[in-house]
C-alpha cells in the first residue's frame, strides 16, 4: 500500500500530474490530450444535438401560471439533480425541461430552481411526521441551475397525495420556485395527469398538469415528463 499511496501517485505523475511545492497538482508539459474513442464525426454530432438552434420551444408561450407556496418550503436545499434519496420507496420519476424568457422567446441560462415535494407516503420532511432533526433534514429537496441552453433535469420519486382535512386531498405534485435576474420570481407546482384527487382540489391549475410516459430500462421502469417554464420579465 505504501508503494502506491495517494501521495506517491501524485508525485510520480501517474496520469501526467506533477506536484508543486505546497501540494498543488499541475499537468506535466509532456502530457497528451485524451484520445477520442470512436468516430469523431459522431462525437461532434452528439455535442451539437443540444444547441440553441435545435431547441424545441414550448407549445404554450404564456408565462407559466403561479401556484400556492404551501407551508413546507425550506431555504438552503442542496444543489443536486437527484431530489430523492437512493432506493427511496416509490416510482422513479425523471422531469426535464427548459426555462424561457417570455419577452425574448429564448432559453434562460443560470436560472435557479428550488424543488421540494412529499415522499411516496405523502409526507414532507418538515411536516411533523419525520424524526429527523429539522436542521439536518433535506429529504426530497434540491436546487438545480439551468445550463447554457436553459435546460434542467432532475430525478426523484413520484410524490404521494396527502390529506389536508377529513375528506380533502391534495393530488401528487412537486413545488417549484424559479428565479432569474430581470424576471419575476415564479412560485408554482407541477401536477400529473390521471390523478383522481385533481377533480376535488381547489388549488390546481390545468396548465400545470403534464403527461407522463412509462419507460422500460435494463434495470426496471421509470416515469418521465417534460415541464417547460416561461418567466415573465420584471418591471
Low-confidence stretches: 6-15
The CATH topology of the largest domain is what?
Answer: Protocatechuate 3,4-Dioxygenase, subunit A
Strand content: 25-35%
CATH homology superfamily name of the largest domain: Aromatic compound dioxygenase
Number of E strands: 14
The pLDDT mean sits at 84
Order of helices and strands: HEEHEEEEEEEEEEEE
Structural class call reads mainly beta
Explain what the structure shows.
It is a single chain. The protein is mostly beta strands. It has two domains: 2-34, no CATH class; 59-231, Sandwich (Protocatechuate 3,4-Dioxygenase, subunit A), CATH 2.60.130. Helix content is 6%, strand content 31%. It has two helices and 14 strands. It has helices spanning 6-11, 40-48, and strands at residues 17-19, 25-27, 92-101, 112-117, 141-145, 151-157, 162-165, 168-170, 173-179, 186-192, 209-210, 213-217, 220-226, 229-231. Strands 3, 6, 12, 13 and 14 form a five-stranded mixed β-sheet that branches. It has a five-stranded mixed β-sheet with strand order 5-4-9-10-11, with no helix packed on it. It has a two-stranded antiparallel sheet with strand order 1-2. Residues 6-15 have low confidence and may be disordered.
Quick gist of this model?
Strands 3, 6, 12, 13 and 14 form a 5-stranded mixed beta sheet that branches. This protein has 2 helices and 14 strands, in the order H-E-E-H-E-E-E-E-E-E-E-E-E-E-E-E. The chain is mainly beta.
Amino acid at each position: 500500500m505504501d508503494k502506491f499511496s495517494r501521495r506517491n501517485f501524485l508525485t510520480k505523475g501517474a496520469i501526467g500530474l506533477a506536484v508543486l511545492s505546497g501540494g498543488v497538482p499541475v499537468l506535466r508539459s509532456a502530457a497528451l490530450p485524451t484520445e477520442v474513442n470512436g468516430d469523431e464525426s459522431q462525437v461532434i454530432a452528439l455535442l451539437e444535438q443540444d444547441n440553441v438552434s435545435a431547441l424545441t420551444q414550448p407549445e404554450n408561450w404564456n408565462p407559466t401560471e403561479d401556484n400556492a407556496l404551501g407551508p413546507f418550503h425550506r431555504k438552503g436545499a442542496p444543489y443536486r439533480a437527484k431530489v430523492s434519496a437512493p432506493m427511496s420507496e416509490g416510482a422513479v420519476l425523471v422531469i426535464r425541461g427548459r426555462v424561457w424568457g417570455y419577452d425574448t422567446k429564448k432559453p434562460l441560462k443560470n436560472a435557479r430552481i428550488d424543488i421540494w415535494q412529499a415522499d411516496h407516503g405523502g409526507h414532507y420532511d418538515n411536516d411533523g411526521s419525520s424524526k429527523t432533526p429539522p436542521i439536518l433534514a433535506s429529504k426530497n429537496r434540491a436546487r438545480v441551475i439551468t445550463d447554457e441552453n436553459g435546460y434542467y433535469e432532475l430525478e426523484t420519486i413520484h410524490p404521494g397525495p396527502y390529506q389536508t382535512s377529513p375528506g380533502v386531498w391534495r393530488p401528487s405534485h412537486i413545488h417549484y420556485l424559479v428565479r432569474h435576474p430581470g424576471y419575476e420570481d415564479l412560485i408554482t407546482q407541477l401536477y400529473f395527469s390521471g390523478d383522481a384527487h385533481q377533480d376535488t382540489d381547489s388549488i390546481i391549475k390545468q396548465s400545470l398538469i403534464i403527461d407522463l410516459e412509462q419507460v422500460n430500462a435494463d434495470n426496471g421502469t421509470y416515469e418521465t415528463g417534460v415541464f417547460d417554464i416561461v418567466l415573465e420579465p420584471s418591471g
